[in-house]
Amino acid sequence: MGSEAQSRASTKYNKSRDNIMIRPTQEEGAKIRKAAEDAGKSVQAFILDILREHIK
Asked: What is the 3-state secondary structure (H, E, C) of the chain?
C-alpha cells in the first residue's frame, strides 16, 4: 500500500464523494463502454459529463 499520509488523503477524499451504482444489462453496459471509448473518455467521465448537461 502507500504511506500513512496517502492513506489519510484517500480516506478524506473518499468521504467527500458520493457513491451511486448503476446496474445496466450486459448489452447496455457494452454500449455505454463503447460510447465512452468512442468519445475518448472513461466510463465514469462519460456518464458524469452527460449527467452534468442535464442537472443544474
From this structure: CCCHHHHHHHHHHHHCCCCCCCCCCHHHHHHHHHHHHHCCCCHHHHHHHHHHHHCC
8: its cell numbers: 489519510
* pTM for this model (two decimals): 0.75
Look at residue 18 and tell me whether its pLDDT is greater than 70: yes
- pLDDT (tens digit per residue) in 23-37: 999 999 999 999 999
Q: Domains of the chain: which residue ranges? A: 22-56
